[in-house]
Amino acid sequence: MRTGEALPAVGEVLAALATGLWHWNTATGLVTVDAEAARLLGLPAEQSTLSQAQVRARLHPVDWNEISGVIQLAVAEGTLGEVRVRIMDERGRVVRVGRSRFHASFDRKKRSYEVTGSLQEVTEPTPGTPAGRTAVTGDWRRSREAFLLDAGRALAEARSTAEVLRVAAGLSMPGFSPDGLAVFGVTGDRLTIIGHHGHQPGDESPFSHMALDTDYPAAEVVRTGRAVYLSSPEQYKDRYPVTWPLAAHFNRQSWAFLPLTVAGRTMGAWMAAFAYPVAFTPDERSVLTTVARMLAQALSRAEATESAQELTDGLQRSMLPKLGPEIPGMSVAARYVPTGGGLQVGGDWYDMIPLPNGRFALVIGDVQGHDVRAAGLMGQLRIALRAYASEGHRPDAVLSRASRFLHGMTFGSVDEDPSDLRFATCLYVEVDPTTGLLDIARAGHPDPAIRMTDGTVLARPTAGGLPLGIDPDADYPTTRITLEPGETMLICTDGLIETGGHDLETGWKRIRTILEEHDGDLEELADALVQAVHGPSSHHTTGPLADRREDDIAVLLLCRQGEGCGCGDTVAVRPTVRRTMLSVAQAEPERVAVARQHLRELLHDWGSEDQVDSAVLLLSEMLTNVLVHTDADALLLAEVRGEPGDRRMRVEVTDTSDDLPHKRRPGELASSGRGLMLIELLADAWGVDPRGEGKSIWFELYESKGADGAGGADGPGGSGGPVGAEFA
Questions:
Q1: What is the spatial distance between Cα 386 and Cα 332, in angstroms, rounded to a whole number?
Q2: Local confidence band at 368 (pLDDT 50, 70, 90 cut-offs)
Q3: Are residues 517 and 392 part of one domain?
Q4: Residue 167: which domain range?
Q5: Which of 56, 410, 689, 724 is most buried, by CB atoms within 10 Å?
Q6: Which DSSP string corresponds to 113-153?
Q7: Does 31 map to a domain?
């Protein structure tokens, strides 16, 4: 450089020296790397912000564990830290060795580290050279005790057999490193190959299913439980002449075969083969023996975990039946996602049951708990429900019998452990595929939701009783609703609703948004509902980014085919009519509030909030009039027709009383008598229609008038005079 020229930027200088920069904040778990550091890690050469898991996947497991110890030591001594790391590709192969020097600081309040350092590639010493023989990884000078500590930590963290083998393949032992590994297991009286490293695919074929009485080192190790060390090809050939030809073509110079022993039982053998002569000194044998013991323990844990996983997966498959045959005119989709804990089954279930009357039943439920007992009770309860339903009982009778059954199972014994007393929530729907009628009985379970043909989603409150198993004499009233062509019903367990910090209200809002915005078929909708809660299902993720589910999820979707749904061949067309129906019994005045909420949900996108408030007020007056001045139950029918901005809302309340309302002139202090006056004032049209048995009172509001603030009735549009009854 000429005098007076500006110095180049630090990044440019480091890039010219093939040195990258990185910064790690353990509080956020994020690692920032520049373009050169990213290239050395095998990533695109551009500045990136990575998660700890992404960086860890690029480094050898032993080296990753070592970094934490070096950082702590550097902070404690107030010095710079230096590490050597092996950088691996996606297949777990070491592609380069890097050296990093860094400065680390510790934040006592956050209890986290800030680390900034450099990274550059270095040359790996050749195994067998003086530098290689005194190193653990590269020329990293560490004691055998440090190596064994790191190896034990890495093997202890391995969760599967494949991960254990990957860690074992990457172990670079102090002073000697094998370039060929094989792990043998035992099945009956034969050896099997569990895994290998440093060999080509297919090389293991001659050694698979070898009889234990074969003259082969691994077979002898399994038979005797004693290690075999072969320092040269001559020793191998002299001691095992029959099987020497199988090993000769690998061109190795030394071999160590060690027993894999757990709790006094030899479960297999571990072979470490070397491309250079190894004397197998006492120190070297000690290291190999210790590694073999740790490897055996890790494989035993992985085998137990995988066996338990296979068992629970099989249990899950057996307890969750596939949906039955196709139903003419209807489609059904279901999903079950177990909790993210160790046990992959729980108390949630769903079922579809053919009934003797040609209908079918959809059942969804949740037994308290996520353990083996919950899974066992779930299986028994599901079988009982199928039996009661197959006998032809109505929904209320099915749940009553199921509740009595579960109570006898869990509360029937005086010696029962209180921690084992369980209950279950359940929703039982009897479906008539011809008419779309749904008879619903509910036992402490979340209500169903209906996605209407125009995409509007309504939660449908239904009558219900106590959860199953609490009271053997509990009643379960039945609610009847109609699933119109093109509509979809969702029933689910609370795991879909109250997960991720949501309560019942906010959880339903999230689900409603998915249902309203999704235009795909029923299977895609089921996937979207589950993935919106937890993302794509992954049962083997570990570490800080692991997918931790808070509760099991069971979902059932039922679609009555027609325009506006994605369950048939019909192209989805948003119709211009939406409606809802709800009954309010004399004994259930609290359902007036439910009816008001129903109407608000039906009018969720109405252009005038004032008109919505008016409609809710008038509906409340009409329902209250029926409950107060008659002995009949009320039936609400509300519908919206037309295109947005020019729609008509019609609300109709029907009862079986023949008494017709009439207008009154209440005084200032009167508490009733203003119903018809309000309708005249607020409705665009209204009327009273006598029926064959009873009457119907209705009103209409027009969205186009709401924009101008217009209101008031044009006069009664129905027939019949206002005589007979008070109108509250």
A1: 18
A2: confident
A3: yes
A4: 161-314
A5: 410
A6: EEEEEEEEEEPPPPTTSHHHHT-SSTT----HHHHHHHHHH
A7: yes
